[in-house]
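In response to reviewer comment 3 from the previous cycle, which asked for concrete evidence that the modeling workflow produces usable outputs, we include below a single protein chain processed end to end. The sequence was submitted unchanged, and the resulting C-alpha cells are shown without manual editing.
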Amino acid sequence: MEAPPNPSLRAVDDLALIRRVAERRPEALGELYDRYAPLLLGVARRIVGEGFDAEEVLQETLLHAWGQTATYDPARSSVSTWLVLAARGRALDRLRARRARGQGPAAPARPAREARSEEAGVRAERRQRVRAVLAALPDEQRQILDLAFWQGLSQGEIAVRMGAPLETIQARALAALRSLRQSLRDDIRELM
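The workflow returned the following C-alpha cells.
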C-alpha cells in the first residue's frame, strides 16, 4: 500500500523543496521526483531513446539533485531549468559514450504520456508556445538548435555537418537564441 502524499510538501514551492532536499529529507526527494520525473524522463528519452539509458539518466539526475543542491543558484535559473540541464548533460554523456563505443545514435523516442494535473496542462501550453516559436524560426536556425541541444554537437561540429562556415553557424545560433528569448520573455520570467 502506498503512503499518502505529504500535503505540506505538495504545497511548497520549488525553492523551498530544494532547501528541504539539501537538508537530506527523503520525503522532499520523493516530492521532487513526483514533480519532475515525467519531464526529466522525457528529456532523457528524447536524447538517448527509450529504455534503460533514459531511466538511468533520470536516476543520476535525481542523485545529482540529492548530492549537489549546494550548486543550485536560484539567481541563475529555476529549479526545473537546473534539473533539465542536469538531465540533458547526463543524457548527452551517455550518447557520446555510445558513439565512442560505435553503437551509434539513439533511436527516436516515443512521446511520453502526459501526467493528469493542472501543472501538466500549464507545461503543455508552454511546450506548445515553444514549439510555435521554434517552428517560426528559419530552418537553418532551428536545425542548429536541434543539433546543439539534443545531439550535443559543438558549433564547429555543426559547421562541418551543415557544410557552412563556423561564423555563419555562430551568427545563426545567436539569432535563433535572441529570437527565442524575445518571443518567450514572459515564459522565461515565470520560470525564474
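Residues 118-192 form a domain with the Arc Repressor Mutant, subunit A fold (CATH 1.10.10.10). We consider this sufficient to address the reviewer's concern, and the full set will be provided in the supplementary archive.
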